[in-house]
Amino acid sequence: MTQNDAIRRIYATVHDEFQAVNACIMEQLHSDVALVEQIGHYIIDAGGKRLRPLLVLLSAGACGYKGDRQIPLATIIEFLHTATLLHDDVVDESELRRGRATANDRWGNAPSVLVGDFLYSRAFQMMVRIGVMDVMTTLANATNVIAEGEVMQLMNIHEPDISEAQYMDVIRCKTAMLFEASTHTAALLADAPEEQIKALQDYGNHLGLAFQLVDDLLDYTGDSETMGKNVGDDLAEGKPTLPLIQTIASGTHEQTELVRKAIRNGGLEQLDDVMNAVRASGALDYTASRAREEAEKAVAAASTLPDSDYRQALIELAKLSVSRTA
Prior knowledge:
mainly alpha, Farnesyl Diphosphate Synthase, two-stranded antiparallel sheet, 17 helices, 2 strands
């Protein structure tokens, strides 16, 4: 079975619910302000995997949930994620996402930020309608932590003396937290036993870390067409991601100084030299190994759930997370 076949099989597990989520997304994007709808549809229609909504649906199924509130919950998660993308692209001055011009490149920074705010507020309106206090509390806390993670990352730009532990804290906040919120809130919605709630929290956290570490890797090993963004974007922005941090920690003096200078200065003038240094130092292999460790922890957490097609899909998703190319 190819990777694409495996991915299709995972999505097929929740096919009807996934279609319902897509319909809910389009319905909830409605606004009397034309530009809000235009930008909202632009970024939502760009596609993407809808991975976080998928996690909501699979997690609810794995807990035996029989209601229908997982549909608006998955939509809430997608809106929170999309809002962060709109804001991130403004902060990072990005011009390309998913192979298309970013919203800020097309409409400007102010409309992108404000439509991001609209998606956040619409998500919180929907949370209130779901009416489960534990779900609202978890999502409110997660949104706060994600914002803190983005600020932490901003503070680390052009700073070469960031440790691996510091970096893991950043990606746990800015990326893994929404993965964890997706699985955690689904378990809360299902009123699952405490051990299942904890298992799904752990699963989401470790899957999110694995996912971000692979993203770090792809910034040096992927290609622009497949990824839908430019190779070397992190380096251009002066972000000290794990491949660079590990090169500084384990590379030769020349490699270390090259990477430190590249982080401080940003830009792509030394991209080829930095890529060579990252490969030669073993930092890419190290990053891939760390991603596999997190994916294995996710598999272990999901394996404690009751046997079902949903559990198997969660396990398969964690395994696939470290072999993706985009």
